[in-house]
Structures are given as structure tokens and as C-alpha cells.
Amino acid sequence: MEAAVVVPLVWIVIFLVLSLNFYVHQRAWYTQIACEAVITGSGQGAYKGRNAAEEAEKVMNKRQQEYEYPFSGAECGISGGEDAASAQISGSILFFLPQGYAERSYSGRVEAEVVRPVEFIRHLRALEGIGEVWK
């Protein structure tokens, strides 16, 4: 094959792979901080007796400030109350193509309920007690 055909095809593939890597990295990173914020917020909310959504919002803001590579159009919203917290993430990233740019969007939602360990263990022990009665 001619080098005039092969070289542009190789460059197109390289640009697509790099763009896909940026897209997957951004989406995975924002999903990870959403999960971390919701789980940590629900745990801290139960432990400290505070609102799970407020604790999750603190974790989310802290993690976003730590991130050094700025992405435009990324939004993270926290909602919930004392018994649950949820995070909604959405954004877009530009794909770098030889012909120009193409924008791809992503979104996701993460939810977690507050688990209070003392109540959970008491419920488990009560269920174990019921099981022993029926033996």
C-alpha cells in the first residue's frame, strides 16, 4: 500500500485512541468521585448525626478542587437527606479528530442509603433469634 494512504490512517487511529482515553478517564474519574462522595457522605452522616447529602457535598467539592486537569462542562450535583444521598454527574468532552472536533457527553447517577451499624446489627441478631426458634 501507498504511504500516502497508510500514514493518514495511522494518525486517525492514534487521535481516536487518545481521544477515547481522555473520554474514558474523565467519565471514570467523575463517577469515582461521585461514588466516593455518596458513600463517605452517607457514612459520615450516620456517624456524626448529620445530613448525608451535606457531608457528600463537602467530599465532592474537596475532590473536585484536588483534580488538576480542568474539564469544561462537567457538573456534579448532590441531593438527598438524612437517610440517603445521591449524586448526579454529567458533562462533555471534545474528541480530537483530524477533521476537527466532535463533542461527546456522559452522565451517571449514584445513590447510597445511610446504614446505621448499631440498628443493622440489632436487626440481624433479631433475625438470627427468629431462625433459632424455628429449629
Brief characterization of the structure:
The chain is an alpha+beta fold and 135 residues long.
Please tell me about this protein's structure.
With 135 residues, the protein is of the alpha+beta class. The protein has one domain (3-133). Helix content is 58%, strand content 25%. It has three helices and three strands, in the order ααβββα. The protein has a three-stranded antiparallel sheet with strand order 1-2-3, with helices on one face. α1 (3-48) packs antiparallel against α2 (52-66). The protein is elongated. The termini are far apart. 21% of the residues are buried.
Please outline the helices and strands.
Layout lengths: L2 H46 L3 H15 L8 E6 L3 E14 L2 E14 L3 H17 L2
Helix pairs in contact: 1-2
Rounded to the nearest angstrom, the radius of gyration is: 23 Å
Largest sheet: 3 strands, antiparallel
**Percent of residues in beta strands:** 25-35%
Q: Quick one: how many beta strands?
A: 3
Question: How much helical structure, as a percent, in the residues?
Answer: 55-70%
Task: Estimate the global geometry from the Cα principal axes.
Answer: elongated
Overall average pLDDT: 76
Question: How many individual domains?
Answer: 1
**Structural class of the helices, strands and pairings?**
alpha+beta
